[in-house]
UniProtKB/TrEMBL annotation:
This is chitinase. One of its GO terms (cellular component) is extracellular region. Pfam families: Chitin_bind_1, Glyco_hydro_18. The keyword Transcription regulation does not apply. The lineage of its organism: Eukaryota, Fungi, Dikarya, Ascomycota, Pezizomycotina.
Amino acid sequence: MCIHVACIRLSLLSTCRLTHLSRKGCQSTCDRKSDCNPGWASNDFSKGDKCPLNVCCSKHGFCGYTEEFCKGNEVKRPSCSISDTPVDRVIGYYEGWATSNRRCNALRPEEIPYGAYTHLIFSFATINPKSFEVSPGNYETEDMMERIGTMKLLQPDLKIWVAFGGWAFNDPGPTQTIFSDVAASEANTETFLSSLVKFMDKFNFDGVDIDWEYPVATDRHGRDEDYENIVTFMKKLRARMDKYRRGVSMALPASYWYLQHFDIVKLEEHVNWFNLMTYDMHGAWDIDNKWTGPWANSHTNLTDIQLGLDLLWRNKISPSKVTMGMSYYARTFTLTDPGCNKPGCRVSSPGEAGKCSGTAGVLLHPEIQDIISKNNLKPVLDREAAVKTVSWGNQWTSFDDAATWRLKANKLRGQCITGFMVWAISHDDEFGTNAEALASVLGRKKPDFPNFTIRPKVEDSPDLESKTCRWTSCFEGCPSGFKEVQRDGHKEIMLDTTPCFGKACCSDTLVTSLYSKCVWTGCTGQGKDACTGNNPHFLTSSSVGSGGMKACSKGEKRSLCCVSPAPYDVAGKCEWRKKAGFLNADNEKLLCEGACSSNQLMMARESGLIIGSEGGDGCYGDLAFCCTEPEKLKPRDEDPGSSQGREFQALIRKYMENPTCPATILFPQLHDKFVRKRSLEFEAAEYNVLRARAKDCTLDTWVRLLQYATLVFSVSRAGMDPLVKVWDKEFAGNYDKQLEYNNLHAFLLKYKDYEPRSVVEWVLYNPTRAGPGIRGADAASQALCRVPGSKARNIPESTISNIDSRKIDAWGGGSGYIPALDTILTAIISGAISLHYARWQYYQSSQNGNVPGPMLEMAYWLGRQPGHENSEDISEYQDQTPRPRWPSDRWVLFHLHIDPSNRNWLISENGNTYVGVSNFRVMHGQYWMHGRNGQAWRVSHSNGIYNSRDGFSCPEELGSLWYVGSRITLPDDQPEWARLLHQWGEMIYRQGYVGNRGLRMIIEPPQGGSRAEVNPHNPGELSRGVMGTSVVGGNNPYEINFILSDEGYEFTSPPPPQDREDPDTPA
């Protein structure tokens, strides 16, 4: 709103700060207050006397930190020489959801580049909104927490922290006020801290990062009291973490808008460091913001970063407490005019979503490099902003690489900053390209890769008793572990009465070996020259020897000569001592004690007067010649790699003693290759149940073995060879050559969409069937997947993905409690399992590892009549893995995923149209759930413990697909499940679900009559989740359950009775 000149004049005469002109005249806004007091006599018209964060107050009472506000009050920045400011901290945030939300460019924990980071921060754990206790939040997150800990096997000094919060944590929902609630209550804070300690112990986290976005801010569900409460909370958190020797950090925004609500001066003493989020300075949110506007700008613009950093310097925050943020992603825009494609040009909307990131306005660095390569683009370096920009079509983005990171790092190190962090390392590619570039810029030397060669273990030396007899000081008792020595044939103890009464004390073990190695010569006065023959090592000389000997004549002394090298007992420091600390009174200063400290051996005595006559520091009494006992021999520091190699060997050997342990005792949750996102509220409790069952084998050893084995097949470098040899010799050599490293690793390289952990896990779970299963899967996938126009067997074997088996076992024969896929398919074909409903779904983005596009769900009831209790035994179709308090399986679900971006997703052969499926998945279901907003009911398959998914994928890079129902001849060497899968595909094609009638539900307008084949070259418009179609009466085809019969479509199928509607919570 503009202020009218007349009103300005009027306001100068009034007590109201602002007025404006309306039809009613000048309107006062006396209830509004300025941000600060620029010098008015009273604070009645301002919110405070000063601005938050010590920024500047303008003459009109506004707070700001740019030149127009702070002229003459410029910030004083710290200054350091870059060469004298080495980087000592490089932190990488890892997204716990990376592999479940992105179908590509999702770095697995085991792929984190070795030595690139000093710290990893796992993001995020969660806090229960009712109990305020911390937890992983869901099973997949718990699994990823365990997996990221695997990196310590390679890099033992790596610190792994856990973060709580994030932007989404304060979004509307059950967690939006958790931080405020915890910080406001002593009881809630104590609950949080107590559970946090247990949580960190369980997952071996070294520190905690608090990412509260943001206190006080009303647009982020903050409260005014957060400003003080967050300081109290962080103080208690730091005290608790200090007690358990763990670290504390806090994420800070780089914008004044949110940072003003942090009392950073008080918070500084309660953190090891701040992690300053110097990214996301600009983005699509600027478009409708009147202060920023719709202009292309970089989200890591160095000018903006410096302004954010200056807010810390204005408050004298130590540079050692600042960790600067870098990013491995970019913000993107759609240009209003493609002809104007530089910073400052007008933009209209976020940029197009990337293939992997799947979010409008965001591209990961690997995606940008792919775009640059594909379009032969030449990025432009903007030195002032320290970014590179690139434009293609109507798209624009900026990004960082080694050149821009160097500009930023030099600027920041020049301000004494030695810590850097990245959001997020899970945006990197599998080669760690960004990590390598950043490391080269920061100049940190990577640690050497560990040597896993197994060497004989270096045993600790035994506790060394003091074996040698010794004389005590005057009237001192024998030290602990020693006893008085009696004279031969007498009951009195042996005493040395030369200066006083000192006892001879010996241990109960070997006592006189030293005295056989050192001897006194006669009185010669030759010193060291007297030591010859078998005792050449001169130790000292004395006129009375060890005491009790006849004194030598003046000018003569005895020499103490030992074997060479010197005996262990006297190999340390030896010296003449006047006092050992017994006679300390003022009148005793000139008295010698003739004694040694308790950790010393007394080897000789000498008169203090003689020492004085020789020009030494004399005294009355005897001096003692004392040799300090050498410290306990310590073994050389064992190469950590050697001990790790030995541990891996021991774990495999223990496994080989009982290889059926996992499948018959532990029943560990086998991980889903087709990962997908879970709700924050879902808590996995099965591990506690399973641990109680383990007797001769433990879940801990199983998890540890998986960690090592996954590393073997995830880290490709020569340094892993010793572990490879352990795998081949101790495990694979006892089963099948297919399981040897070279063969299994080649298998994983061929099928890159499969996680090594999942495959290795299944191999260890099914060691006797894994080899034949892998070979059969190779052959089956080669036969089923094809490129249009080619014969199925012409597809190169090296490019075909295989089927993966989980809760329905597809690798052959079933597995203990788990039914085989061929058993399920046989039952469907025979009618023992019946179709309850079919339903189309649409994935809007690359969610849950899927491509955007339609998915056909087919829900089969375990029984002959859908929804009715069974009179026949159906247990052979259910997963019988022991699972207390959980319901039995009632359905088997099949998911057929279609990628409409593949130009061959529909083909015509022999007058028939076939739909190509990019991947196929199968899982069990136990409960149904109500549809949202009037949608039909569905079987729930979101249970992360018991609904792991099975299936196969055709290779995306070739564009090959499984054309369901198409006429192909399978080779004779196919496994039974592949033959049955093809037979099932032919059946659902004949029924119409993947044929003309099923396709017409999602295509509008369908061409031709109701029985005409869909034309692959002109099928009509595919409904993408919103548009209705005529076949379903103009309704959304993705909200309807249906059955196909000879009469047509049936759109009603009531759900069966069930005792509860919450499918994700145990009874």
